[in-house]
Amino acid sequence: MSKPKYLLTVPLIVLPLLASISASPISAKSQKSAVVAADPGSAQLKFVARFDGGTGLGGAEISAMDAKSKRLFITNGAKNSIDIVDISNIKKPKLIKSVSLANKGVTGIQSVAAMNGLVVVATSVGEKTAAGRVFMMDVDGKLLASAPKGVEVGALPDSIHFSPNGRYVLTANEGEPKNYCLTGGVLTESSDPLGSVSIIDTKAAKIVAKTLDFSGYKDRLNGIIYAGGRVYGPGASVAQDLEPEYIAISKDSKMAWVTLQENNSIATVDLESGAIIGITGLGFKNYNTEGTGIDPSDRDSERRVRAVPAYGMYQPDAVAVARLGGNDYLFTANEGDAREWPCLMGGTDSTVAEAEDVRYGSNGTNTSLKTNATLGRLAVTPFTPATVLGTNVTTKTTFADAYSFGARSFSVWKAPIFEGVFPAELVYDSGNLIEKKVLEVNPAFFNADWSTSTGVANAADTRSDNKGPEPEGIAYGKAFNKNWLVVGLERDGGIMLFEVSDPAAPVFVQYITTTDWQGSMLSTPKTSGDVSPEGILFIEAKDSPSKKPLVIVSYELSGTVAIFELSSK
Questions:
Q1: Per-residue pLDDT tens over the stretch 528-543
Q2: Would you say residue 6 lies in a domain?
């Protein structure tokens, strides 16, 4: 392929971890859990219990735990409520009650966090383009008298987090558009609101949010792109186009980092000054090496992870931070995401959604790469780094270079702390370790996903052309004097455990899944196990009801929450 105009802005470091991994394939037969370990003598996750709210699809997306009350708080999108679950006995999770916020005008619950007896819930009220609200309650679900109507934040608060010291509550307000259709030649904020970050000081005399947007970066558009980020929504300003997704906060509660998923960037927030001080572009991953290759096709004759002449946009969803060796490092789950809104691709009808992702076989210009066995089926963007800003991109726009969504990996970055716009410093990327591991342990359903209409698994290879196993959730924690990272694979259903005391050389420890690919998530009783991990919690021993470290995973499609115990052998 031709060399991209804006060449890779960060180095790619892939360490040879695969050579040390030996494991037997997991049977596709029904099982309580399936485990593959690199080192049977190291710490291991063990499935302990499952909570099923009984509502199925959307029944469990994000969970939070309050250590003192030993309760879980689970967003239930199916009921638009918060489920309060007692886990004082981790083997027998028990529903206490469900708290609905419908009478407060809530139309969507996006996220929840809990700390020191306080539970905070990020919600949409009315249209998603309107200001969101954070509701505060005690562990019994009673709203605080100091904020009975909630606290107004930015549009579509997609995730919510406490600072480690408990003082601040932060929301990442995605501000995603409802369309890109112009009104009088202008993309109004009623169509595409500003992306923002809101900060609530819980110790303030009056509970209000300070909402920070990206208006100060209106003249930095070219800088963000040259640093390896993306600003490309037709007609959008920089402040409209940047879409916060997820937040990690430093241990000292002074800094926060916010993933801007669609923009392939991370924003840095100074909590002491209350300002967004920097934007870091993540650059693009070269898939054309043995250690970084992918399976790019759902219609080739074999399932094989291989070097291909294409690039991946990291586009992380979840992010975690760890203080290691005197430095802060960010761990990102590089899920990827494509936009799909009316008027995105040159149309004018506000009722017809237009998807950014197209197949290279349809729009690519390198004819030798347009077959199903090469890149023909790969979902890519026509908004490439080589696209001239202001170009009218349509579904018929052609391009030479293939830029796919996500990187099918997790990455470690040096946490940016400086002011300005600049490229990120990549410390480590897992390359194709995740996709190769999935192929090894689950060949019968490699890169498959689930049908929400039939409730059963789709065929293997279904997602090879579009983000593969799809790493989405991530969590960091300490146990047994070591540092651990847990990565959830949204499409594959598996959970991967890494030891990350050396951030430049993470060590694969374990793959575990509680998904039964031969079951059904819509059957009664449900036979699929846990499907589609979303939110992940690492509960350190000091905060655990069992006094042993736990990993708690929320599964969006099955509507279940699984509890795993981390034990040291």
A1: 999 999 999 999 999 9
A2: no
**Model confidence at 121: pLDDT above 80:** yes
Cα–Cα distance measured from residue 162 to residue 181, given in angstroms and rounded to the nearest whole number: 36
CATH number for the domain that contains residue 398: 2.130.10.10
CA–CA gap between residue 57 and residue 41 (Å, rounded): 37
Sequence-separated (6 or more) residues with CB below 8 Å from residue 2: 400, 401
Can you point out the beta strands (E) in 325-443? 327-333, 340-342, 353-355, 358-359, 379-380, 403-405, 410-414, 420-423, 425-429
93, amino acid identity: P
**pLDDT reported for residue 11:** 33
Residue type, 75: T
Sign, CA dihedral 378-383-386-391, equals: positive
CB contact at 8 A, 33 and 48: no
Q: Which of 332, 336, 277, 325 is nearest to 465 (CA)?
A: 336
The number of domains in the chain is 1
Residue 252 in any domain: the answer is yes
Average pLDDT over every residue of 231-256: 97
Domain range for 369 is 18-567
Dihedral pair phi/psi, residue 163, rounded to 5°: -70, 150
Is residue 90 included in any domain, yes or no? Answer: yes
Q: Give tens-digit pLDDT for 468-485.
A: 999 999 999 999 999 999
Domain-embedded: residue 44:
yes
HSE-up of residue 522 (Cα within 13 Å, Cβ side): 9
